[in-house]
Design goal:
single chain, alpha/beta, 7-stranded beta/alpha barrel, Beta-galactosidase, Chain A, domain 5, 3 domains, eleven-stranded antiparallel β-sheet, ten-stranded mixed β-sheet, about 30% strand, elongated
Length: about 700
């Protein structure tokens, strides 16, 4: 009996990725694959192209779209949809799931003049409740990994077809992609894939075997362009398929759906592909899981055991990376505002919704083999589009001149209240329960959150870096850069150090913290008066056994791009001065470029933003990003020592291990000599000046 083979590709580039990355992927994968496939009209494929990539292709590569449209018309390519901007579907509200899927379906049907019946599930992250939303969005089928089916107890003989799945009376057809093919195609000789097909055909007559994986494997991944095109692997594979059509029936999902009955009914567990479920585990549990798998692989029962051994759930990336939770909570806030704004003009509401959808692109929300959340430009893109969506809603709502707003609620969904101060220039979010820190600071005109930072934390692959086990390093000395933070790298973080702490100790995490204020809970209240909002936070804590109170008051006026901060320390010892520091971090400003630099009173250009700065008796420091048109300045009422250093992570990408600049840390520090009442104070002005950007019409990052 013949075997049916469905060859499905998923092509994707995330929102916010660099233009040259799109260009290189097009050159090395998308264009050569389609050009070669065009020479084999008898070989059909199923193609999913994510919305961000499709929009780029439409704008920059119309010839590719024209070729693809011709191939669709002749029935060689079946186009499938998905969430427009490639969201992890369980991560976003149901209304946004349906909106993303149905909007992209309509877009593709108009672009290619074809019927779109199926969809790609991003990262194959699955929860059973998705069935209703997918069907309600007009989709008939999708494809997931065979791992999902095995964990639901499906036997091998039932794996090669499609199953019916149901939720609230909605029926969805789901195909299973064969995991062995992910490791055969395109890595092994085509003859090995044919041998795999032959074995399946002998055991499962008329089986539908599915390859569904990333199209970037065919040219973008390291050495794959040479392998697939220069060395001819892909042509040999196509030749093998064409030469064996007498027993390998090539087709699409839609054809299989129309010609075959379902293999059965199935309810699938929460799952993703195998590696994703591992990456979602806490680090200690990931090590335990991998040791356990290593031990059990040698057990003769492993073939039966492995399908019952499960790792983690994707949602726990929000636990592993609190920065993901921050983006998630902010996204939900904007989504709710859109849903609660029926009075807004329909056109503006549609624009805001599209900005929200763009912010939901999944890549910076997690981390595995690729950079993910470790890529600052992708995190910044999330906030850029969230802020843009919020701005559209604000502009559509009548407001007084120099409007000012303050709100206290649980913004980040941690069970404690946060505080937001905002005007037409800034939106500042404070976390009283976590050190009274400033954890998000949006500069509205530039659509930029300068606190889209990332803390340094251990990753499983760091052991390989320490052991110098032959992995690819994009630069040397990374084993000496493995430093970890015990708190999130935000701003208004209050430190007490030993006298004489050096810049090197601060930059290399060798300092000793003497106080309990860094993550301690502050009490708070919000006052309004004289055209200002004032957030007052206070905490009674300990510094080396001494009771100390910190009060910090942050004020924002309606017409200012500046936060004014007043610190008061009380109960300070007079005989042994305290060494006090306030930490700020600034993200979204690139390092390693001459047009991004420090300045201070003595130097207009004091070095690029990754350089160390150690200023004595200083009262001001600034950071300039000429490309963005941004000048961030921090001014002190009381002269002190100002230290600055880069926060850099060692992370894994598809091309090896690399050092990534995440933020610039600024720490003004003082030796606290209290007055006769044990009191000491300082005022700081933090200004985000976008004048340069506004003067040249640069309104977004």
């Amino acid at each position: 009996m013949p075997l049916r083979f469905v060859f499905a590709l998923h092509n994707h580039q995330p929102v916010g990725n660099f233009g040259h990355v799109f260009e290189n992927a097009y050159r090395d994968s998308y264009r050569p694959f389609l050009e070669l496939l065009d020479q084999y009209p008898e070989i059909p494929i199923v193609l999913h192209t994510s919305g961000p990539l499709m929009e780029w292709l439409v704008e920059h590569k119309p010839e590719y779209i024209d070729r693809l449209r011709r191939m669709v018309r002749r029935g060689q390519v079946e186009i499938i949809g998905g969430g427009f901007y490639e969201p992890i579907l369980p991560m976003i509200p149901p209304c946004d799931r349906r909106g993303q899927i149905s909007t992209y379906k309509s877009y593709l049907e108009s672009l290619f003049e074809t019927r779109v019946r199926g969809m790609w599930v991003p990262e194959r992250v699955w929860e059973q409740s998705l069935v209703s939303d997918i069907v309600d969005a007009g989709v008939e089928y999708t494809v997931l990994d065979d791992l999902h089916f095995r964990q639901a107890g499906v036997e091998d003989r039932q794996m090669f077809g499609y199953h019916l799945s149901e939720d609230n009376g909605r029926l969805l057809r789901i195909f299973a992609a064969a995991e062995p093919l992910r490791y055969l195609v395109p890595y092994r000789d085509p003859s090995e894939t044919l041998a795999y097909f032959g074995d399946l055909a002998s055991r499962h007559p008329d089986a539908v075997v599915v390859f569904a994986d990333d199209g970037e494997k065919f040219g973008v991944w390291p050495e794959m362009f040479r392998h697939c095109y220069e060395h001819g692997w892909l042509r040999r594979f196509f030749d093998a398929l064409r030469g064996n059509r007498h027993w390998i029936r090539l087709g699409t999902f839609a054809q299989a759906l129309d010609e075959m009955q379902p293999a059965g009914r199935i309810y699938l567990p929460d799952a993703s592909y195998r590696e994703m479920t591992e990456w979602a585990l806490p680090l200690a549990r990931l090590h335990d899981y991998r040791r356990l798998v290593g031990e059990l692989q040698h057990d003769p029962r492993w073939g039966r055991l492995q399908h019952f051994l499960r790792a983690g759930n994707w949602r726990n990336f929000k636990v592993r990376y609190p920065e993901t939770q921050e983006m998630y909570a902010r996204m939900l806030q904007i989504s709710r505002r859109i849903q609660e704004s029926p009075h807004v003009d329909a056109g503006i509401l549609a624009q805001a919704r599209q900005e929200l959808y763009r912010a939901q692109c999944n890549c910076p929300w997690w981390h595995g083999t690729f950079g993910g959340i470790y890529l600052p430009h992708l995190r910044s893109a999330v906030y850029e589009h969230l802020i843009a969506a919020e701005e559209l809603l604000l502009e559509a709502t009548p407001r007084p001149a120099n409007w000012l707003d303050g709100e206290i609620t649980d913004f980040n969904l941690d069970g404690t209240p946060e505080v937001c101060l905002q005007n037409s220039w800034l939106a500042a979010f404070f976390h009283p329960a976590c050190g009274g820190s400033l954890y998000e600071l949006d500069l509205r005109p530039l659509r930029l959150n300068v606190l889209a930072t990332l803390a340094r934390r251990p990753e499983a692959y760091h052991d390989a870096i320490r052991q110098h086990n032959g992995q690819v390093w994009k630069q040397g000395g990374l084993d000496h850069m493995l430093q970890y933070d015990e708190y999130l790298r935000k701003s208004l973080i209050d430190h007490f150090y030993e006298p004489g702490v050096t810049l090197e100790q601060l930059a290399t995490r060798q300092e000793r913290e003497l106080g309990d204020f860094v993550t301690g809970a502050y009490q708070h209240r919000l006052d309004r008066g004289n055209g200002e909002l004032r957030l007052i936070m206070w905490r009674d804590g300990q510094v080396a056994g001494q009771n100390v109170r910190i009060t910090k008051e942050i004020s924002l006026a309606g017409d200012r791009d500046t936060l004014e901060v007043w610190y008061i320390l009380e109960n300070c010892p007079r005989e042994n001065p305290l060494y006090f520091a306030i930490e700020f971090n600034f993200a979204g400003l690139a390092a390693g470029a001459d047009d991004r630099y420090f300045y201070h009173a003595d130097q207009a250009r004091a070095g690029q933003l990754q350089t160390w700065q150690d200023l004595i008796n200083a009262e001001r420091i600034g950071l300039v990003d000429e490309w963005r048109g941004l000048d961030i300045s921090l001014s002190l009422s009381r002269r002190g020592c100002i230290r600055a250093f880069p926060i850099q992570t060692v992370s894994q990408s598809e091309r090896g291990f690399e050092l990534v600049h995440q933020s610039t840390a600024i720490l003004p520090q003082w030796s606290v000599h209290a007055d006769e009442r044990g009191r000491w104070e300082v005022k700081l002005n933090l200004r985000l000046d976008a004048t340069r950007a506004l003067s040249r019409g640069r309104l977004a990052a």
